[in-house]
């Protein structure tokens, strides 16, 4: 459901039903009852409130991407959205909700929020309500129909106004009282789940010194301050001739020496002199300008330059232009990858202080789960989750303990998990946390510590167990392999990054337009496996990778992104924009 501080109510109908006429007649009744009403109307894509010739129109056409026009009585903000249509929640955020009691919406059919369906027989269109769980009442000119929804006469404005007023009052009350549904530990949104997890996870405190060769993927414990200038000396960025910048414009120069990288020319350069110089070689004293070899002709010890517009200081890298002595290079919490390791080496350092590597214990669970290597037993499946998790964890720089497949027995499970908790910093299992699972999985976990069995409003990956065993974070992921990967990306990866000491990590998200209809369900986050690509016109499109069963790892292997459909969106139509989470480097 949309998250908004005041009630939002829509009117859904086919065109020709008379939505606007009804709203026009309804509004005076609502305002008489004391409601301050905002209206949001979704219109055809090339509508315009402005008129050609008006000043605001001219200024917009001249390039103003936002145009606010104001007078004593009203103001209007017109915002151009040529790239993509503004999202419903963004549009709502444009209202000044503090000065409203209710927002009525005309249009926005495929967004999930409460709506009254308007229906007139003469229009000859089908009903919407059987396929739309957001319809909370029907107003029509039909005799009573078979539906549990409240039914109103479309011509009885007092009845409709009474219903709307009651809806506004009830919703306002509900918005001001925390509902047990949103706070229940058993049913969480993706954001609530992640927040609850991250809240209980602390950043590391220990540190260790680590050599350059071992730094890949480690996280800095202490900031790095540059002990030197990088580069240490002014040096040439080209093969060519070094001269004095205040000595440009001569017909010719005398070549008085040559300096190669790693060597120095040991006297100051005089006017009329040049030194042949190689890339990376320190520029001689006074020589602050280099002319490329391609623009030079040397005859004996005389050099001439073909290029006329030479600039003093050109082609010289200045000492400290990359990093200055005493400059803070990296802060604590920085993840070290190739460029960072190169920069640390360029400072002359051989080691630095990092957080210890996380040790992660990984189990699979389930009597049907069999390790690869032997012929498959009746009713069994090969264990894939453990190998998925181990590879992900290794690529995040963790040390992994492969703890095998947990036997379906209470005592075995209790002893294996508590032993894992003594040696590992974090424990991850897959399988055995959904509603229908063997009870002893849960009872074993319950007897080990405070483990919450959540249902996350997401697909795939609804069941999730999270808690602590002997103080060590424990994740009980679902069993289906795709659900394992999506839950890992959504909950485990951020938690591990925090435990590794990495600060401010956020997954990369962007938008693409859908090339196929994408269905979701109101109230849950839908993660489909997608493939995005750049089109020749520069736009980014996305499609799904075919069948999306949560057991089908192939859908993940063929994907380069997850498509994330937020809980308040019911479906995404071809051409509409949708959030994507690129997966390069994350799967
Ligand atoms: P569960 O949540 O335990 O009911 O498991 C859901 C589905 O995931 C079942 O079809 C299991 O067979 C499957 N599954 C559980 N663990 C694994 C595993 N380690 N590798 C592959 N599939 C698994
Ligand atoms: Mg199972």
UniProtKB/TrEMBL annotation:
InterPro entries found in the cross-reference section: MoaB/Mog-like_dom_sf, MoaB/Mog_dom, MobB_dom, MobB_MoeA, MoCF_biosynth_CS, MoeA-like, MoeA_C_domain_IV, MoeA_C_domain_IV_sf
Enzyme class (EC, first level): transferase
EC number: 2.10.1.1
Alphabetized GO MF terms: GTP binding; metal ion binding; molybdopterin molybdotransferase activity
Keywords, sorted A to Z: Magnesium, Metal-binding, Molybdenum, Molybdenum cofactor biosynthesis, Transferase
Domain MoaB/Mog: 361-498
Pathway this chain belongs to: Cofactor biosynthesis; molybdopterin biosynthesis
Record-linked Pfam families: MobB, MoCF_biosynth, MoeA_C, MoeA_N
Catalyzed chemical reaction(s): adenylyl-molybdopterin + molybdate = Mo-molybdopterin + AMP + H(+)
GO cellular component, one term: cytosol
GO biological process: Mo-molybdopterin cofactor biosynthetic process
Function: Catalyzes the insertion of molybdate into adenylated molybdopterin with the concomitant release of AMP.
Family annotation (PANTHER family): MOLYBDOPTERIN BIOSYNTHESIS PROTEIN (PTHR10192), MOLYBDOPTERIN MOLYBDENUMTRANSFERASE (PTHR10192:SF31)
Name recorded for this polypeptide: Molybdopterin molybdenumtransferase
Organism classification: Bacteria, Pseudomonadati, Pseudomonadota, Gammaproteobacteria, Vibrionales
